[in-house]
Queue: 3 jobs
Job 1
Amino acid sequence: GQSLEQPSEVTAVEGAIVQINCTYQTSGFYGLSWYQQHDGGAPTFLSYNALDGLEETGRFSSFLSRSDSYGYLLLQELQMKDSASYFCAVRGAALIFGKGTTLSVSS
Amino acid sequence: EAGVAQSPRYKIIEKRQSVAFWCNPISGHATLYWYQQILGQGPKLLIQFQNNGVVDDSQLPKDRFSAERLKGVDSTLKIQPAKLEDSAVYLCASSSRPVLFADTGELFFGEGSRLTVL
């Protein structure tokens, strides 16, 4: 079967840096994606890692270690608008999502 | 470019009643997915279509859920009869190619249809 583990909640203050970890167990792994979802909104794509290493997109970076079945999303210079749920998702024949991490950013 | 459209946004029904949700994907997207998202959890794949054919419906409770995509464009998800545990947001997503063959596997989601079963 497939399983993904990520923390349920993370809190931080504006301007800080936060790392959201994701460990996974799956067969047929092709890559790890990250999605952001604001309350009542649609999940939106943030980043994708197929190979080991760090991918940087503006304030957000994502890392993957295939040998450790581990990845993380790094959010820098946090803003209030970053308060949302963040999901890691394993790409195989379909996209399988973790349960999500709720990030709360305070001033 | 118009996004994924879903309707209705909200629906409240009694248990044992039926309900249908509609999805219109991004123009030209051949692959369409229905996900179920229960409060506090991640989206769970129910069914995946490639054009008008079903690719994967292994997680669809077929005794009460059905879905179709007759002309390979818009899709309908039906629940009959509904149970209390079906209360969730039903998300439709589309992509230009199947997840397995796309560059990043990016899915484009609609805002969902929130179902409450009383």
Job 2
Amino acid sequence: GAVVSQHPSRVICKSGTSVKIECRSLDFQATTMFWYRQFPKQSLMLMATSNEGSKATYEQGVEKDKFLINHASLTLSTLTVTSAHPEDSSFYICSASRDNYEQYFGPGTRLTVT
Amino acid sequence: QKEVEQDPGPLSVPEGAIVSLNCTYSNSAFQYFMWYRQYSRKGPELLMYTYSSGNKEDGRFTAQVDKSSKYISLFIRDSQPSDSATYLCAMRAGGSYIPTFGRGTSLIVHP
């Protein structure tokens, strides 16, 4: 159990466009979902924490108007990168937690902005 | 100084070797310690989860926590090429459910 999926796994978009990434908990209800960003050979950097039905809590330095997070249900959270720029190219990983202790990670989405 | 320090490697070992991966930390409030394995272009997978000091063993993996030295280790016995991955340590305080991650150590086990 505790499987988390992400879609798409890879996306290439042009500068100025918006991209939506979905994160789903497939076999459990996630009270909390997390969005991370990871640059090559770097650690996971938490971007935001979201609870179903409420606004996401963003980490310091993360632009909430640029990285829109919607946690519509207990099994789905979406991250939309608005007006993407090449510097937004990165590996985005979500995780889901059902008990606020253990996080189960998705397989990640590689975003390339040209 | 970062809260969690981890040597990025790469660490290259022959098949069958005992591997030692380590992290140091500065926040004495950390009580929960995790090790994740991350294959290339994949999300992290939880390997070991320990609370406070001591050892925990699971198959070929042993996690060790020394809170007095603020030092944690992951040992892999009889390493296999399939163990080649990046290993991330993570830790969190008792009142928080958000861990702080190390930058990961790249491990290469060659046949």
Job 3
Amino acid sequence: NAGVTQTPKFRILKIGQSMTLQCTQDMNHNYMYWYRQDPGMGLKLIYYSVGAGITDKGEVPNGYNVSRSTTEDFPLRLELAAPSQTSVYFCASRITGGNQPQHFGDGTRLSIL
Amino acid sequence: EDQVTQSPEALRLQEGESSSLNCSYTVSGLRGLFWYRQDPGKGPEFLFTLYSAGEEKEKERLKATLTKKESFLHITAPKPEDSATYLCAVQAGRDDKIIFGKGTRLHILP
């Protein structure tokens, strides 16, 4: 049982390049989330999904896109990378129902130069 | 506006010196409050869930408590391995929105 797995762990992109951050979970969780964490700023929600085929915007969705074709996978797409997207990105999942904690991956550290 | 505030931002303690971290919140319709531990280069790791005022949960040297306006994470006789960032999150509202605080960086000196 691997939990939540994120790839890659590190990536450097040039301004204007595109990439996909991968997230997969093996716990059969319906809810999945993407956050970004900047120094001193806490976790900011980018997008979330309550099940396969359903996604919704969070607090800071501009510049990102997501899809959820399966329960297990929730990739995050950056289409035109900008320096402001330099951050650490965390994927999380949880089971359906109130008061259930999130389980986090170990993050992707992304630098846009 | 829903808000979660953690204090202090950073705390340095000597090994064995007990203290408390604070998480205050202003939300409508609290569903639950979560505490996480985050080590450098890692994702947050779940510690506790608290549901209602008066509730307490314990795990080793950590004890979490909840009132109607805030939660405390008490750390008793801490060890250097307790050094980490501690995050508080609140789940609230009809849409089960989850709001994180900015965290408290705890450093335990040997």
